[in-house]
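Thread: cobalamin complex, take 2
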Amino acid sequence: MWEVSNLKKDLTQELRRSIIAGDSEKAQRIANSLLKEGFDPLEAINTVVTSTAKEVGEKFERGDFFLTDLMFSAEAIQAANEVFLKKLKESKIERSINKKGKVVIATVAGDIHDIGKNIVKLLLNVNGFEVIDLGTDVSSLNIVDAALESKADIIALSALMTTTMRSQKEVIDLLKEMKVRDKFIVIVGGGSTTQEWAEEIGADGWAETAEKAVKVALKLVNEGE
Ligand code: B12
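Output below.
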């Protein structure tokens, strides 16, 4: 566990407030200050940023936040994450880079949320996977095509909304239809998804966080060897 000094506590509160206020510049400044104080970047993403993102979502759901507020907060989340992810990348010793396997990652059709996907992408990458990022709102056919073309080992699908989760199922159904399901490990994740959902649609793995996503990917790749 990280020792949380009063200064760090104040800074995490400040970061939370600047995200809620949608102040990207301040969020970035405070993120840098937290790092200077020795705060672990992954811990910062997993605790402060993710819990504030949840808080922002709840405000939006309750009607306390308009879409513009949500958008400003999203920008502040990304600004802070940029600082943390950069640090994380620098601090990781990249052993056996790109030797663990190839991952095609995408946010599924109809969904433009990519903050979580980008964290998963970076953590997979610094843990030795080659990652091909197809971006957001990617059609199921494009995902399957890219996976086939690049001879990927893993297809990783992110979905944040109850309405777009079904696109994860669509990708798996398409793989089956094209008789290539057994060529790939499919992992799914994103705010609206669960382990039960992953099992229901026939995915090979699910994870609640990016860190756990890496563990699941490593386990599944090793099992397949
Ligand atoms: C930021 C945000 C936005 C930003 C997105 C910016 C961006 N570049 O991503 C903007 C403002 C653009 C936005 C737009 C919309 N949003 Co929005 N948004 C959010 C918010 C507040 C935070 C999401 C986030 O980044 N969380 C932080 C990250 C770190 O968490 P995460 O994505 O879950 O990722 C972690 C894990 O899930 C996992 N993971 C993620 N992907 C994967 C993939 C794999 C393979 C694995 C294994 C793991 C994994 O690892 C990640 C890191 O640990 C959420 C609220 C919430 N509680 O999620 C609403 C939320 C997702 N949005 C919502 C809605 C409704 C919308 C809009 C429809 C609003 C509108 N009326 O236009 C649009 C959607 C447009 C579209 N077609 O996609 C709803 C969805 C409701 C639902 N359940 O269906 C939510 C839940 C808010 C709410 N409570 O109402 N949004």
